[in-house]
Amino acid sequence: MCKKILLVEDDPLMMEVMAYILSSRGYEVYTTANGNEVFNQIRINHPDLVIVDTILPGIDSLEICQLIKLNRATRNLRVIMCSSEDDATEKIMEHKGSPDDVLEKPFDINSLIQKVAHRLAA
Fold first, then answer.
1. Which residues in the chain land under pLDDT 50?
2. What does the alpha-carbon distance between residue 53 and residue 31 come to, in Å, rounded to a whole number?
């Protein structure tokens, strides 16, 4: 059974590229550009991993992560947050309900693949 990934990205080109990379590796990829759709997508598609951009329309990405991590039904769902800010990892990881990992943009394709594989194996 292939692993399911929910990709939350408001940049259409970035979403297309990331979805292509992940689907070409055998993952089933669902996408949304709006943070307000995340929990509906989780409920419908039951992803194994959520990759969320830090800047989204609608709900804040850190709030999305906190709601996932602090909810009994979704707390084991792995989350990777993508950020284009310099030194974002420390800032993001210090929050309660922080993601499992941070992928800094621009990223190397191999970094994306390795982080996804690592988090799905955990």
1. none
2. 12
